[in-house]
Design a protein that fits this description.
By secondary structure, the protein is an alpha+beta fold. It has one domain (about 5-140): endopeptidase fold (from Nostoc punctiforme), CATH 3.90.1720. Helices cover about 25% and strands about 25% of the residues. The protein contains 4 helices and 6 strands, in the order αααβββββαβ. The chain has a 6-stranded antiparallel sheet with strand order 1-6-2-3-4-5, with helices on both faces. The radius of gyration is 14 Å and the shape is globular. The two termini are about 20 Å apart. The model has no long low-confidence stretch (mean pLDDT about 90).
């Protein structure tokens, strides 16, 4: 039986091929996604967790995991970007320049909404080559009701 994060990855995979649109409006989702709206949508649909809409604010949620630690399914991988909304004041003593987010899907791969391909699953190493280094990893924990 799959856990909720594995089910969330299945939901993410069901959107592979969905077109990318930067700055997508809420009424256009799930016909189009940008990277942060994709992550927000699948976390809400799969787990029922409300994440912030923007990549930079998503990076303020959850628990930070060292980028060199082994990733777990469902971890959010934040990449340095050449385009994005930066607010280093949210991350004291760091210059992270977050411009992109993906969800780790296991076996060295992540799923993300990327221009111009749309939603794709690919090796994290390939995303790093195209986007830049992983500058932050966040784990969003599921709190179970007693």
């Amino acid at each position: 039986m799959k856990n909720r994060l594995e089910q969330t990855i299945d939901i993410a995979r069901s959107f592979i091929g969905t077109p990318y649109k930067y700055g997508v409006r809420p009424e256009e989702i799930p016909k189009f996604f940008d990277c942060s709206s994709f992550i927000q949508y699948i976390y809400k649909k799969g787990i029922g967790i409300n994440l912030e809409r923007s990549t930079i604010l998503q990076a303020t949620q959850g628990t930070e995991i060292p980028p060199n630690e082994e990733f777990q399914i469902g971890d959010l991988l934040f990449f340095r970007g050449s385009r994005g909304h930066y607010n280093d004041e949210l991350f004291p003593n760091k210059k992270v320049y977050i411009g992109h987010v993906a969800i780790y899907s296991g076996n060295g791969k992540a799923i993300h909404a990327a221009s111009p391909m749309g939603v794709i699953e690919e090796d994290v190493s390939k995303i790093v080559k195209l986007r830049g280094p992983v500058v932050m990893v966040k784990r969003i924990f599921i709190i179970r009701a007693l």
